[in-house]
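Revision sheet: structure tokens.
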Amino acid sequence: MDIAHFSGKDILEMAIRIEENGIQFYTQAGSVSKSERLKELFLFLAEEEKRHIAYFEEIRRHIRDDTLPGVFDPDIEEAPLYIQALADSRVFTNAHEGKRLASKVHGEEEVLKTAINIEKDSILFYYELQNAIRDKDKSTLKSLIIEEKSHLKKLTELQKTL
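Predicted:
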């Protein structure tokens, strides 16, 4: 896929992949967590990711010409580099990356650190996605960003207690 020519559907597929990987990671991490508080948080976050997928699938259903009208301009020199950096991050690499990541981390502190990084990557991508979606969808995406930030806050607060 030419990085400078992502279609709206391509971008939404990436967003869905982020959420799918989040579900896999949080489900796996929650199932092996010894802390009841951490287990509950991970299961909550997995459910949140499922809601986000439904939102992105709804947007995708309304794309007629495989583009999303907005101010995103992939011809700006920095934009393709930024999207490439996001695409190279661990949340995009493959369909089972979330599960793989969960199986590689050991201990609650490492699991939390990985979850925090996943949330940060998601927030960065969604900020960029704001520039590529229809104006009428921006308020919902902003709500998702707020949710992702609250997830990040919960994870960092929990990390401080370990």
